[in-house]
Design goal:
- The chain is mostly helical.
- It folds into two domains: 384 residues, no CATH class; 136 residues, Serine Threonine Protein Phosphatase 5, Tetratricopeptide repeat (Alpha Horseshoe).
- It is built from 25 helices and no strands.
Length: 567
């Protein structure tokens, strides 16, 4: 009997898939092992400002507005697991894996264009992809739920770049234009910092054409014309973010755009150092602003950047990939690290996209080492293994608020916000004596804000130290008179059976914000405790009408109703 065999070409194609499938499986296992400590990590810091990280904030429909694609992914997580963080972290890791696969494809194409010998290209691209996947500087964007804005937007941007690089025609056809723009739109709808992608495409078209010519840019007129028109339309959307946001943009009052630029002349070297030597990673840098070009060595950083850019241009033919990588790094960092002021001068998650440029520099330098392919693979694997161990340790820090803020306080001891977050971590654990001590330490570092004083006061209230609690709560109200603060003053007075003072504070809270449900719930407690059950029923009903998820609201209403019926 004659056995039918596949043509040799199909057999080879099938066999060639196995190394990639094995590599993908290894990558998936490696990233889950490296980030294992954070898989069940708690919500942290800005996670609580997201729309869907808490069951009380979850909605039956995804939010439409700023970053809708990102919000959709959070909504899907909330529907899947509510306040269980596991699904959030798993999605973050899967996004990170996909981004790593795209890095492999991008680097593979660029090392081919740079003339690296064929036998070493796959090893070098795999090294870059695995280093991207397991570099400890990536932990903030991956282990932190709110860091998904960086990884998701970058994943879409890298997909658009890969489509651009692997197009069949030199000049992008309309289908390619549509695909690139669609992916770019998804990136922007996840986070705005990927706006740098068009500049990267322009650099690529210029850099990899013979003689560094503009012919590639001219040939892709379709893509760049549509992008230019889209940019003009999109500017109307970003205008509010650039000129009206409180924590970023030209409306920021803490420093000017040029002071931010001077500061970033120093900060860009911090990111480079973190890539080369990722030690002392910090969730909240205490990085001082350079108020003048001479302040804190900003002029040295500026001169060094100009010198490096000049050297990259002069050596562009000899070190083509590395020089391209340096300019790509500057372009991808530009939205967050140039002249647009952002309240935090440094945030490690900003390196997530721009690390591509640094990886290309590393790949160029490694490709010049005179060793055989196997030795190159072993050396790269050793570097990646060291990075994975460091990532595992860093992921453990991101696993809980206590671990994160204890680590951050050690590295930024003079930053009030950091000490406040550590104090709140103790408060959340109901370790109120320790929380009070940490709140006091935070207040000594810098003038306390209203939210710090509020939580400080509530810590005293939990220990039934009413007078001290009211002292801090009243200080908070003097700084920021909100319905929430006055409702807490009313609640603390009520717990101490100071009924007139409680009602006075709650009435003031209702006057400030008539739609704040807890005001009416606490007022119901006062009336119920003073045997005014009919009034208590009215207050509880009002609270539940404003917020059906008011804690203990239904049970309180049932008891008050029974009490009123008994009278």
């Amino acid at each position: 009997m004659k056995v039918k065999t596949q043509p040799r070409q199909k057999q080879l194609a099938k066999a060639s898939r196995w190394p990639f499938l094995v590599a993908a499986a290894v990558a998936l296992i490696a990233v889950f092992l490296a980030y294992g400590p954070a898989l069940h990590g708690e919500f942290l810091f800005d996670d609580y400002a997201l729309s869907y990280t808490l069951p009380t904030a979850a909605s039956d429909a995804p939010a439409i507005g700023v970053r809708p694609v990102l919000q959709l992914t959070y909504w899907l997580n909330s529907q899947l697991s509510g306040d269980d963080t596991f699904s959030y972290h798993v999605v973050n890791l899967l996004i990170h894996c996909l981004a790593s696969g795209l890095i492999f494809l991008i680097v593979l194409r660029l090392v081919e264009w740079s003339g690296v010998e064929k036998s070493r290209r796959t090893v070098l691209a795999a090294f870059a992809a695995f280093l991207f996947l397991l570099h400890p500087a990536q932990t903030e964007a991956v282990a932190y739920v709110a860091g998904r804005s960086e990884s998701l937007s970058t994943m879409f941007a890298l997909a658009a770049f890969a489509v651009f690089l692997y197009r069949r025609e030199t000049a992008a056809t309309w289908p390619v234009v549509v695909e690139v723009l669609a992916l770019f739109g998804l990136a922007l709808a996840s986070k705005e910092q990927t706006v740098a992608l068009p500049a990267l495409l322009l650099l690529t078209d210029f850099w990899w054409n013979p003689g560094f010519s503009l012919r590639g840019i001219a040939g892709n007129w379709r893509l760049y014309t549509v992008m230019a028109v889209s940019a003009a339309v999109g500017m109307a959307f970003f205008w509010r973010l650039i000129f009206g946001a409180k924590t970023a943009g030209f409306a920021l009052k803490d420093f000017t755009w040029y002071q931010y630029f001077f500061t970033q002349c120093r900060a860009l070297f911090v990111y480079m150092r973190e890539f080369i030597l990722p030690v002392d990673l910090n969730a909240d840098w205490d990085f001082p602003i350079s108020r003048t070009i001479l302040d804190r060595g900003a002029i040295v950083g500026l001169i060094a950047l100009i010198a490096l850019a000049g050297a990259a241009w002069i050596l562009r033919r000899r070190f083509r990939l590395a020089a391209y990588g340096f300019f790509a790094y500057l372009i991808l960092m530009a939205p967050t690290s140039s002249i647009l002021p952002i309240q935090d001068a440094i945030a490690e998650r900003r390196l997530y996209f721009s690390i591509l440029g640094l990886l290309l520099i590393a790949v160029d330098l490694v490709s010049r080492i005179k060793i055989d392919r196997r030795q190159l693979a072993y050396g790269g694997a050793a570097v990646v293994l060291i990075a994975a161990v460091a990532t595992h340790a860093r992921a453990a820090v991101w696993a809980s608020p206590m671990a994160l803020w204890q680590d951050t306080v050690r590295k930024s001891p003079n930053k009030t916000r950091v000490r406040f977050q550590l104090a709140f971590a103790y408060y959340a654990r109901q370790d109120y004596p320790a929380a009070i001590q940490k709140f006091a330490e935070a207040a000594r570092v810098g003038p306390p804000r209203a939210d710090l004083l509020l939580d400080w006061g509530l810590s005293y209230a939990a220990l039934h130290e009413t007078d001290r609690a009211l002292e801090k709560l009243n200080e908070a109200a003097a700084l920021t008179p909100t319905a929430h603060v006055y409702s807490q003053i009313g609640q603390v007075n009520g717990a101490a059976k100071r009924w007139p003072e409680a009602l006075e504070a709650l009435n003031r809270a209702a006057a400030i914000d008539p739609n704040y449900a807890l005001t009416y719930f606490y007022r119901g407690l006062v009336y119920y405790s003073t045997n005014q059950c009919g009034k208590a029923v009215q207050e509880y009903r009002h609270a539940l009408a404003l917020d059906p998820a008011t804690p203990d609201g239904p049970e309180a209403l049932r008891q008050a109703t029974a009490c009123a019926a008994g009278h």
